[in-house]
Amino acid sequence: PLPVGECGDQTMDAPSLRKLNMMNSLAQMLFWAAFAALTGFQTALLLSRGFTSGEAGIFASLRCFAGIIAQPVLGGWADRHPSVPLGRILNVCLAAALVVNIIFALARPGFWGTAVIFLLLGILELNAYPIIDAMAVQFIGMGWNINYSLGRGLGSLSYAVTGAVLGYQAEQLGVESVLITHGILLLLLVFIIARYPKADRIETPASDAADQPHSVWYILRSNKSFSLMLAAIFLSMTAVKPAASFLINIIENKGGGEAHLGTALFLMAGMELVTGLFFPKLKKSFSSAVLMALAVFFMALKPVLFLLAPTLGWLLAAQPIQMLGNGLFNPTAVYYANENVPLADQVRGQAIMMMVSSGLGGMIGNLIAGYAIDWGGVSFMLALSGSIGFIGVVLAGIAVVIGKPTPIGSPRKI
User: Fold this and answer.
1) In Å, how far are 55, 114, 280 from 177, measured between CA atoms?
2) CB-CB contact of 182 with 101 (8 Å)
């Protein structure tokens, strides 16, 4: 049995709140460390294997595209099968991703082989993020006062530290060594997820049609302001994702190298911890819609600041903008999605948010940016990204003006 209320009276069978917070934080930290190892260095790795920036953009887009397809499918399946623990679903995906990582580290596939590998990594590994979030949301919805924003902030700190360490590791041991670290982190994450406390997933009565899982299109059609904000998020992510995926190109354009890449990743992600610490107060003062609009604005501003940075020092000094961009977006997205989908769609709601942001936004952004660099250089890519991002700012503003979104079905307030 699980407690009900702010923190709840815990029973003999219930995990402690401290253990829940600890396991959630460890899961977030290991996932984002693994994410930094692959995503933060994938372009440098691909360039070292002889691929062009355009081809690197294709591979990164394929990885995001796979997430777009797989996340709502897996999320919908999980919602329809509440008897299957989310941790079990997640660990099957992570174990398979580990196998793919080993193959990628040992082999030197050509264009099509590398494309298949990135496609598989997108299907298997990108799914981890919304499922980890959903595992925490299950307990939050049952009355547990889990400090999600702190766990997400620690995940960002882990990303930052990993990026800094791996930057020097890549410089000393070669960028290929990053794949070894990525595999070790995946293995540790599998271990933590296996020990994550299990929540009793409630099966929705078949007689209550309003609380049955809905399709993605139904959710989007039924909440216009939610759909409009998702469009804004897509455009802002299309603008900001290349600033991370092609960070090595941006740094080299300013005269830096792989060690500076590690420093830039540390400064970028480390600031997200600050947001995680202050987010509970922000959430009490502002609605999720307003916080999301602010995040969209600062994500759109980031490539513009990079474009205007005259030197490498100024570029590094601009990295803390992440605190108000992605740093604000990450915890807000969990609450915003959960407040705008029915109870029966809790996993799919997180998957939709991930699909639009890191999935669709990352796919289009990386694809456009890779070829933009080949065609017009880094400055052209940043100018194009900034222009796309500020269209998103306009849409986010309209979504807020429309008013507070009206949740459909049975909303899930957290």
Assistant:
1) 21, 17, 38
2) yes
pTM here is 0.69
pLDDT in tens, 326-369: 889 988 888 888 777 766 666 666 677 777 777 778 788 888 88
Distance CA 190, CA 48 (A): 29
CA dihedral 121, 37, 248, 160 (to 10 degrees): 130
In angstroms, the CA 196 to CA 105 distance is 29
Angstrom distances, CA of residue 346 to CA of 2, 10, 127, 340: 19, 24, 15, 10
Tokens 């078949």 locate to 206
- Taking each helix axis from N to C end, the angle separating 258-285 and 288-308, rounded to the nearest 10 degrees, works out to 150
Q: Which two tokens stand for residue 204?
A: 């929705």
Task: Return the C-alpha torsion angle 330, 331, 337, 339, nearest 10.
Answer: -160
The four Cα atoms 220, 222, 223, 224 give a dihedral, to 10 degrees, of 80
Report the distance separating Cα 132 and Cα 129, nearest Å: 5
Specify the DSSP element, H or E, that contains 321: none
- Backbone φ and ψ of 202, nearest 5°: -85, 125
- CA separation for the pair 159, 173 (Å, rounded): 20
Reduce the DSSP state of residue 110 to 3 states and report it.
Answer: coil
Output Rg (C-alpha) for the chain, integer angstroms: 20
CA distances from 382 to 131, 328, 353, 378 (A): 32, 22, 24, 6
Residues in the chain, total:
414
For residues 45 and 344, is the Cβ–Cβ distance under 8 A?
no
How far apart CA 221 and CA 139 sit, in angstroms, is 28
Under 8 Å between Cβ of 334 and 24: no
What the block records as the tokens of 141 is 């919805």
pLDDT for 16-51, tens place per residue?
778 888 888 899 999 989 988 888 888 889 999 999
Structure tokens at 164: 């800094």
76 vs 290: CA distance, rounded Å: 28
